[in-house]
Each structure stands twice: as C-alpha cells, then as structure tokens.
Write a structure and sequence with these properties.
259 residues; alpha/beta; D-Maltodextrin-Binding Protein, domain 2; five-stranded mixed sheet; 10 helices; 33% helix; globular
Length: 259
C-alpha cells in the first residue's frame, strides 16, 4: 500500500539538482525505497517531497541515489539494486525489445521548444553554426547510444551534416561543461542545472536546440520499476491508488508499450 503513495507523489510532481537525502522516519512502519536517477533540475519537486517529510508521512523512507546516466539507472533497477529508476524512454524501449519486464509508474519531463531543459552547447570561441560544421567532430554524451546521441545525430543530419562522421565519447553529465570549455570535446547537450550555470558564467554557448530535430514536443523520460516489485503488494497498491487518484487506472498495469 505504501508503494502506491510513492506512485501518487511521483505522478503529481515533475522533479533538479539535489543532495542525496534520506527522510527521517516519522512512524515505526516505514518502507525503505531507493530511487536511482541523474540529478537534474526537473527533480526539484521530488526532492522537496523527500526533504519536507511528505514521503515519510506516506509511510515511505526514500533515498535518492545518483547515477551517471539514465541507462546506468535503468540497468541498476533491472538488476534489482534499486526499486525505481528515472530514465529516458529510449532506455525503457530498449528494455521492452529485450523482453525485460519494466513498466512506467509515472511519466516525466515534457520536452518542449518553448521551455527547453537541454541544449546543444559548444565552446564560446567555437565557429560552428550548422550540422555540416560538426562533421568528424567529437561529441560528449552521458551514455553511448543514449537520447542525447540520437538528438545530436538527428540535428546534424537535418542541418546539412552526416551523423555517421560523428565521434561520441562517454562523459558524465556533471563533467560535460568542463570538457567543452577545455576543448576536449567539440560539443555536447547540457541539461539543467549545468546548462543554466554554464550560460550564466559564459563557459559555453548554444549551438542549437537539438531535441527539436526529433519533435517540438514529446515526453522524454519516465519513472520505471520492475513489474514484480509493483505487484508484490498488489491489493494494497490498488486500493491506495484508487483512494488518492479517483478514476485512475490500476498502477500495476503501468503504461503499455505496443510492439
């Protein structure tokens, strides 16, 4: 039943950088839950819920565990190391294609051109202007083959370049800004809060909103969990979810992915 409380809170929040925190139990019967994620600005609401004791009052002792990428978070969740992971839908789709029983317990991050949370950044003295300027260049990404990889390839192709010529290297989100400024890489997609800090200090400049090369608006990420974890307390989860979210679908079913 207490897991439904987390599902309800996640569904009601969007979620930014946070310090690893652990709630202080306010009653004896609390359920420890570890949520693995990349610390980005979109986690502000969830961090607030943990920090102010909202999770504890729902009977949940939540720990935020930080990962270098959504792919790493997903792998840790699949392995059973943590109960919930925040990840991009790309990692989720990859899991489904491999028949790994992950389900979405709450959507996360609406990607939209009017309010971008990530931008393709280059060094301040960079002469690059179009995708053709990126041919043969080195691009930093948190995880090889991740969503940033896909978005950069799409933008380069749509602006006159050849994505096949790009060289991708794996660098944690927290180190991408420094890698661009030091010219160790030619470009990278930075996310908030690193993006905001970089723009304020002038360590990088914006080349493009690469995500728009895929679509102007789409859901970028989600909170996922193993199906066996979501059904282990099925009756209580269903009752609690229905009590707090009238008319909502059974959270155990997750969000179906058609093949």
């Amino acid at each position: 039943m207490r897991r439904a409380g987390l599902v309800r809170l996640l569904a009601a929040t969007s979620i930014a950088p946070a310090l690893s925190v652990r709630t202080q139990p306010v009653r004896a019967a609390v359920e420890p839950i570890q949520l693995v994620c990349v610390p980005t600005e979109d986690m502000t609401d969830l961090y607030y819920a943990v920090k102010t004791g909202m999770m504890a009052r729902s009977g949940l002792d939540v720990t935020l565990v930080f990962a270098s990428s959504g792919a790493a978070a997903t792998a840790a969740d699949v392995a059973g190391t943590y109960q919930i992971a925040k990840t991009s839908l790309l990692a989720l789709f990859s899991a489904h294609l491999q028949d790994i029983p992950l389900i979405v317990i709450a959507p996360h991050i609406l990607n939209e051109a009017e309010n971008p949370q990530s931008l393709l950044q280059v060094a301040p003295d960079s002469p690059f202007k179009t995708g053709s300027d990126q041919n043969g260049k080195t691009i930093g990404v948190p995880s090889l083959g991740d969503f940033n990889t896909v978005a950069t390839r799409a933008w380069v192709d749509k602006t006159g370049g050849d994505w096949r010529s790009l060289k991708f290297v794996e660098i944690p989100n927290s180190a991408l800004e420094a890698a661009i400024a030091a010219h160790r890489i030619d470009a990278a997609i930075l996310q908030t809060p690193q993006l905001d800090i970089s723009l304020q200090t002038g360590t990088t400049k914006t080349l493009a909103y690469a995500n728009a090369a895929i679509s102007p608006r789409f859901i970028l990420g989600a909170y996922v969990a193993r199906r066996d974890w979501t059904v282990s307390d099925a009756a209580g989860l269903q009752r609690h979810h229905r009590a707090h979210v009238p008319g909502a679908r059974d959270p155990r079913a997750g969000i179906p992915v058609r093949r």
